[in-house]
Amino acid sequence: MPHFHINMDKVKKEIQRLSNMEHIKAEVRRILDDICDFDYHIKLSPSSKKRLKDLEKRYKVWMRSISKAQKQLDREFNKALRSLKKTTADVNKKIDDTKKTAKTQRKKIVKASKSLKKKLNQTKKKMTKKKSSQKRKKSSKKTVSKKAASRSKTSV
Asked: 3-class DSSP state for residue 7?
């Protein structure tokens, strides 16, 4: 079995170096600069360059078509939104008009109902007066007829 010799001092120094944020930031900046300075055109073969140009052309075409589709979608969405807002306003106006009409009709119905109740009460009063006067007439007729009947019995 192989025996590995680990230098603990080197490991500690490496861990400290990696834990130092300033050192890490400097490394990231250095790598970023390397990437920015890298010219991929120099490293590509002619066939790869041609393929890359074709891919870039396709990408531009796709982006144009996506852009056109997005603009069309935005136009249609805005048109639908305007239509929806107009319809909402119309519906709200019709609801308000219907509410006003319902209130007016309700007032008319309440007024007509009160009027009918008043007429009904007046008719009831007249009917009760007629009935009571008719009862009085009948009762006076009955007393008159009873007197006449008792006279006819006595005279016989």
From this structure: coil
In the chain, the N- to C-terminal Cα span, in Å, equals 163
CA distances from residue 153 to 95, 141, 144, 147 in whole angstroms, order as listed: 84, 18, 14, 10
Q: What is the pLDDT of residues 105-134, one digit of tens each?
A: 999 999 999 999 999 888 888 787 777 766
Whether the Cβ atoms of residue 28 and residue 18 lie closer than 8 Å to each other: no
Q: Is the pLDDT of residue 49 over 80?
A: yes
Q: What is the DSSP string of the chain?
A: -------HHHHHHHHHHHH-HHHHHHHHHHHHHHHHH--HHHHS-HHHHHHHHHHHHHHHHHHHHHHHHHHHHHHHHHHHHHHHHHHHHHHHHHHHHHHHHHHHHHHHHHHHHHHHHHHHHHHHHHHHHHHHHHHHHHHHHHHHHHHHHHHHHHH-
CA distances to 104, 107, 124, 126 from 112, in Å:
12, 8, 18, 21
Q: Output the average pLDDT for the chain.
A: 82
